[in-house]
Amino acid sequence: MDSRQEVKSLKKALRALVVLNQRGEATVTDIASLVGVPRPTAYRLLETLASEGYVEKQDHSTIYRLTSHVRNLADGFTDRDLAVEVAKPLIREMGHMLGWPIALATPVASDMTVRITTDYENPRAIDRYMVGFNVPILHAPAGYCYLAYCSEEERERVIELARASPDPRQRLARNRQRLEILLERVREEGYCTREYAAYREGGLGVPLLINGTPVGGMVMRYVKSAMQIGQLQAEYVPELNRLVGRINAAFNERRRAADGGLDRLGVMSRAAS
């Protein structure tokens, strides 16, 4: 972003909130030192945040603490969003290492939506899909990976939506026996491959499970003429599963850090009451 478009006071206020979350409490002097602003500026930042209800000054003290109002800042941020956020640099790293384009897709109604892709960084990508691109769930390896591991109630809901779709790529929703066989195979093998005659590329998918909960599917696309199923199984499935493990570790680390801040907030809120 052009520095002329930045609201510098907002950036400083956000840094002050981060400091308070990390430390649990801080004085004006602390904020001035850690945010890198003069003491009068730190005082104005804290008083502004206090007037909006995000921090409060303790009675007969120079100490400021967060209030429960800060929880509202994260209400719309889900575990799925956190998983996508921590996955992005790890997927890019794995894409460079494997040499094939990798994407992460998550479910929206009866589609899978691309949330992360390395297509524009990888010269082997024949077709390039942008973030936000939707693929029918029964046309995408990521879709089978998600449906194989989601709850039965969620699976029924999605399949009903797919069955009602006029898109011919969702037609497998009307052949429930065949679909169940494919999903059971994904559960047994832990991965999914899909190849279509109309495309030069095939897709290898593995489920992205965060602490056992399905978030979506990770897909590596490859040129069909350059790959055999044995090579996919032996070389690439283990690497994609290792990537899932790293995403889980990064997710849990971030959750522990966030929960630590909320735990301090809970203790402070109880103490204040």
What are the key terms here?
disordered C terminus, six-stranded antiparallel sheet, three-stranded antiparallel sheet, Arc Repressor Mutant, subunit A, Beta-Lactamase, alpha+beta, 2 domains, elongated, 50% helix, 19% strand, 273 residues, single chain
The run of helices and strands is HEHHEEHEEEHHHEEEH
Largest sheet: 6 strands, antiparallel
| Fraction in beta strands | 15-25%
Helix % is 40-55%
Strand tally is: 9
Low-confidence stretches: 267-273
CATH topology-level name of the largest domain: Beta-Lactamase
In CATH's first tier, which class of the largest domain applies?
A: Alpha Beta
Q: What is the overall number of helices?
A: 8
| Strand order in space, largest sheet | 6-5-4-9-8-7
Overall residue-averaged pLDDT value: 90
Distance between the termini: 42 Å
CATH superfamily of the largest domain: GAF domain
Give a written overview of the molecule.
Helices cover 50% and strands 19% of the residues. With 273 residues, it is an alpha+beta fold. The chain has two domains: 73 residues, Arc Repressor Mutant, subunit A (Orthogonal Bundle); 176 residues, Beta-Lactamase. The strands form two sheets. Strands 6-5-4-9-8-7 form a six-stranded antiparallel sheet. Strands 1-3-2 form a three-stranded antiparallel sheet. Helix 2 packs across helix 3. The two termini are 42 Å apart. 31% of the residues are buried.
Topology, please?
Blueprint: H1 8-23, E1 26-27, H2 28-35, H3 39-51, E2 55-57, E3 63-66, H4 79-98, E4 102-108, E5 111-117, E6 134-136, H5 141-149, H6 152-164, H7 176-189, E7 192-195, E8 201-210, E9 213-223, H8 229-272
Antiparallel strand pairs: 1-3, 2-3, 4-5, 4-9, 5-6, 7-8, 8-9
